[in-house]
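We emphasize that the prediction below concerns an isolated chain of 169 residues; any contacts that depend on oligomerization or on bound cofactors are therefore not represented. The input was used exactly as deposited, without trimming of termini.
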Amino acid sequence: MSHADSVKQSEEICKTLNALQLRKILSDVYLEHMKTIVHSVFMLGYKGKVNGCDDAVVLLSYPKNAFGEAKALRVFISTRTELSAQEILSLYANRWSIEVFFRSCKQKLAFDKCQLRKEKGITRMWLILSFVHFLCCTVAGHIGAFDKGYHYFRNCVLQIAFAQNDFSL
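Result of the prediction step, given as a token string:
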């Protein structure tokens, strides 16, 4: 990329960031233009004070072909300022399946309603949730799709329940 292209791209980034009104989120912003293309992703980074935190890294990431599209923007925040942008994104990527698991457990399996307080009860609940999540993600024809597996098993259970009680669907 030539210097002129780099300057033009930096100006484009600043216009986009101003349009997104990020100054309301970040205080004392000095944008450190990292202009790093990583796996066809354009990233812009900021390192410094973020509201409520004295030292943090904020990475703004767009797919290379969707720069400037609001729905394509992904924001990653880390307090581990010693890490590079690639290391931060790698940590997020490795952790993402765990976040999806927790969201599925809370939204569909009522994990957020759990009122267990003793270690033994929590361990048992955790094992049951893990097993049910595994089953939902490994239903034939729906491998890896928790929601489809969940709906499949839910419908099976409802059919059995209605059949035993002579309810109609």
